Amino acid sequence: MLSLLVFVQYFEEEVAILRNKVQLLEETKRLKFLRDGLDASSLDELQQIEDQLEKSLSIYSLLFWERIYQLKEEEKFLKKENAELQEKAGYSCYS
């Protein structure tokens, strides 16, 4: 269970870092556009970067939830296995 919490915390931190990078990139682009002036190609480039970042965040999110599912399944299996071993050993968690 601890490893699941550590894993979740890690991905929450990764998502926060990526969001900060996105904000920084957006602000940098905005300032560059203000300084250099806007043109159609710059806007297209910005849209492409935004699309790429959204895809990256989606992939991270998908991997994150997939791993959480895997860890929950592993936890279920280990709990079941633990209960079976306790039963074989004659141990009850209620005694």
Notes on the structure:
It is a single chain. The chain is mainly alpha-helical. The chain has one domain (2-89). The protein is 89% helix and 0% strand. The protein has helices at residues 2-36, 40-89. The radius of gyration is 23 Å and the shape is rod-shaped. It starts with a helix and ends in a 6-residue tail after the last helix. The model has no long low-confidence stretch (mean pLDDT 81). This is K-box domain-containing protein. InterPro entries: TF_Kbox. It holds the Pfam family K-box. Residues 9-88 form the K-box domain. GO terms for molecular function: DNA-binding transcription factor activity.
What's the structural blueprint in terms of helices and strands?
Layout: H1 2-36, H2 40-89
Helix pairs in contact: 1-2
